[in-house]
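JOB MANIFEST
job_type = single_chain_structure
chain_count = 1
residues = 218
[input]
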Amino acid sequence: GKVVVIDPGHDGGNASHPDLISRQVWAGNRWKDCDTAGAETHGGYEEPAYTFDVARRLARRLRQLGAHVVLTRTTNSGVGPCIDRRAGIGNRAHADAAISIHADGNDAAGARGFHVIRPLLVPGVNDVAIAPSKRLAFAVRNAFRRGTPMPVSNYAGTGGIVARDDLGGLNLTVVPKVFIETGNMRDARDAALLSRGAFRAREARALAAGLTLFLVSG
């Protein structure tokens, strides 16, 4: 009976509509682009397709467990939605938990691994979401580390946790929400994992376990 909002990062049509996704929207403490095109592996596997596949697998798993699931986009052929609207979908759904799925595009040599991003305080905007989002971040981090062979990031955060106040999807949330960068698409080792359907299935199970742990622990 819990409500979970899943946000597959970016969208398949973003890259061909730079005029639309570069439109400026208010992100709680600054103006930002509506969205971006996302990353891709050296082999051409694009982040929007990847995140959508993981999101659908996760949604299926959570529904089997009895959750009411809302996706911020239901195809990979559109544009957006903008970052403020993505946050708004979770807020209007009164989500018990929300997660935005991404994969990074860091070109630094040797940069690999996953990290979970939790919101920093934007006073008067996301105040009520800070404490539960921190608990959600650790639940997701722990489950993803246990449930997949993807290592913790060696280039971002500490122990796979990062706190940021420059992401509109987190700045504008009033429900518990995190982002997860599930790996680095520009690293050959990470890309090999992210490109495998069997690995994405493991990711979905791990993310479902982390969300479940958060939801049942209160």
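[summary]
The first strand starts at residue 3 and ends at 8.
The mean pLDDT is 98.
exit_status = 0
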